[in-house]
Design a protein that fits this description.
Elements lengths: L4 E5 L4 H12 L3 E6 L7 H11 L5 E5 L7 H9 L3 E4 L8 H4 L1 H21 L4 E7 L23 H20 L3 E6 L2 E2 L8 H11 L3 E3 L6 E2 L2 E2 H11 L22 E6 L5 E2 H12 L5 E3 L15 H7 L7 H23 L1
Parallel strand pairs: 1-2, 1-4, 2-3, 4-5, 5-6, 6-11, 7-10, 8-13
Antiparallel strand pairs: 9-12
Helix pairs in contact: 1-2, 1-8, 3-5, 5-6, 7-9, 7-11, 9-11
Length: 342
């Protein structure tokens, strides 16, 4: 990455922040785009970006990917070698409350990105999808070649649509594109709407935690540093024509396009994850058992063999180790935030 230019959308977000840090550490110039919206506390995004802008190789751009012409101008000005598209509206449950924001960010925003890549093609365009696209599939582990025609949430539907949109552009305009499907990412600087934050804060405050599906859930929890390392390694795993690749993976037969799972490859019972947080906090949680929420699925599990074939790498952080790192950060950040607000 030394000397290369990477455009990262959603750079002040949870994953975008960690990715930008890693790219900067490898000598890349990072153009970071983020709109700093108020889906969750903008102060957290500002605190993340404050660390990034201390590096002279980081360029901060404020704006939304759906803003007409913004991405086109950035592509023309900076001519990025790599584009990693992480911006978008996340969250299964919020997509039930506010589907319009998903249409704008995930569909319109991805269209603006693809049009910019069409005009100024990067060496490699990498775009975030989600394990939620596997929807009603029950055969596990999930493989990239599984059908993903039954999304269980509008969030998943917009990501499935983004995959289809990107494939059409890869085919029509010969743009090398990799879609990656994330599996339950967690770690320091995580979003406050995610389970690690909600569980940790409730336990520390002595309040009950909400456990859905009566705890009978499994998730392929993936530590954020593992995830962004996989993304960086995939930057140079550029899809080519199908004639040069195995038809046995997710490589398109008609375009330089593929999809890759990024997960830990080892699902963990939700109650085991709760116990890890309890241990890290030194307190036992009071639990309120609830039924499954609309749009949720009972389990996720990634087949990561394609990621290993392409990069030689497999995420490996144990959930107890990852949770401990998260809780240490959580306590330090939120205790400091509370001190500053007094």
């Amino acid at each position: 990455m030394n000397g290369k230019t990477a455009l990262v959308t959603g750079a002040a977000g949870f994953i975008g922040f960690h990715l930008s840090q890693m790219l900067l550490g490898q000598g890349a110039r990072v153009i970071g785009l983020d709109n700093h919206n108020d889906y969750y506390d903008p102060a957290l995004k500002a605190a993340r970006e404050a660390q990034l802008i201390s590096d002279e190789n980081y360029v901060s751009i404020k704006g939304g990917v759906e803003d007409p012409g913004l991405l086109m101008g950035l592509f023309e000005t900076y001519r990025p070698d790599y584009v990693i598209h992480l911006a978008g509206q996340a969250g299964v449950r919020y997509s039930i409350e506010n589907p319009r924001s998903y249409t704008q960010s995930n569909l319109v925003g991805s269209f603006e990105l693809l049009e910019a890549a069409r005009a100024f093609p990067p060496t490699h365009l990498l775009m975030a999808s989600t394990s939620s696209v596997y929807g009603a599939n029950t055969q596990m582990p999930y493989r990239e070649t599984d059908k993903v025609d039954l999304p269980m949430s509008y969030y998943a539907a917009t990501k499935k649509a983004t995959e289809a949109m990107s494939h059409s552009y890869a085919h029509l305009f010969d743009i090398p594109i990799t879609m990656f499907r994330f599996f339950t990412v967690y770690g320091p600087w995580g979003r406050p709407d995610m389970a690690p934050h909600l569980f940790t804060q409730a336990i520390l405050d002595g309040k009950p935690i909400k456990v859905f599906n009566n705890g009978d859930m499994m998730r392929d929890f993936t530590y954020v540093t593992d995830l962004v390392r996989a993304i960086v390694m995939l930057c140079d795993a550029i899809p080519e024509t199908a004639a040069k690749e195995s038809r046995d993976n997710s490589q398109s037969p008609v375009a330089p396009w593929r999809v890759v799972n990024i997960g830990n490859g080892a699902p963990v019972q939700l109650m085991a994850f709760v116990r890890a947080i309890e241990q890290a906090c030194g307190k036992t949680a009071e639990k309120t058992m609830l039924p499954m929420q609309p749009g949720d699925v009972p389990a996720t599990w990634a087949d990561t063999s394609l990621l290993q074939d392409l990069t030689g790498y497999a995420p490996k952080t144990d959930v107890n180790e990852g949770v401990q790192a998260y809780v240490v950060w959580h306590r330090a950040y939120y205790e400091r935030s509370n001190d500053l607000s007094v």
